[in-house]
Amino acid sequence: MPEATETRILLADDHALVRRGVRLILDNEPDLTVVAEAGDGAEAVEAARIHQPDLAILDIAMPRLTGLQAARELARTQPGLRLLILTMYDNEQYFFEALAAGASGYVLKSVADRDLVEACRATMRGEPFLYPGAVNALIRNYLDRAREGGAIPAKAITDREEEILKLVAEGHTSQEIADILVISVKTVERHRANLLEKLGMKDRLELTRYAIRVGLIEP
């Protein structure tokens, strides 16, 4: 198959075994090739900058940056890069956040062997790929919003505050957070203070509990 039709893929998942399985599925196809792997969201952003892939496949639950946070960053810094979310979560909230983050599709790990290759090809054709349950969720959400005459409610915190919250909850110091997000320590401290004020919390422990509750980190 000519080089021009080959899709170069970045694969990000914090479980090496999952990456190996997904890589086997993809590398078996003549038009798909994995050119880089990453074990967390921050690594994925860096790997995409270095390898310039055509498509990034991102797990949701990863350390440092989640797949959704990484997707938002990649959509901002590499607008030409296509994004696919690969997840074990059949969860409407994550699904809508994935679309909002710029992902073209949402594939469940449980059926990756059936859906992933077609999802990659659809995404590269510029078409969305949605698993059947997601289509139902999309229609239901649209009808609910049409009935209520409203939009999807805004999140309580900004995307940047969410990134800071996740890293704080994972136990990173302000200096480490500044290094990961390439911002100053002073900016980290400001965001942290804003988070505590907005969420009505007083310390890291309360922020960590909140991060677990909203699915940013696993307990």
From TrEMBL:
Keyword Transcription regulation: yes
Alphabetized Pfam families for the sequence: GerE (PF00196), Response_reg (PF00072)
Ranges where the HTH luxR-type domain occurs: 150-215
Annotated SUPFAM superfamilies: C-terminal effector domain of the bipartite response regulators, CheY-like
Organism: Streptomyces sp. 900116325
Protein name per its UniProtKB record: Response regulator transcription factor
UniProt keyword Cell membrane present: no
Signal peptide positions on this chain: none
Source organism, top-level taxon: Bacteria
Keywords: DNA-binding, Phosphoprotein, Transcription, Transcription regulation
CDD domains: LuxR_C_like, REC_NarL-like
All residue ranges annotated as the Response regulatory domain in the record: 8-124
Residues with 4-aspartylphosphate modification: D59
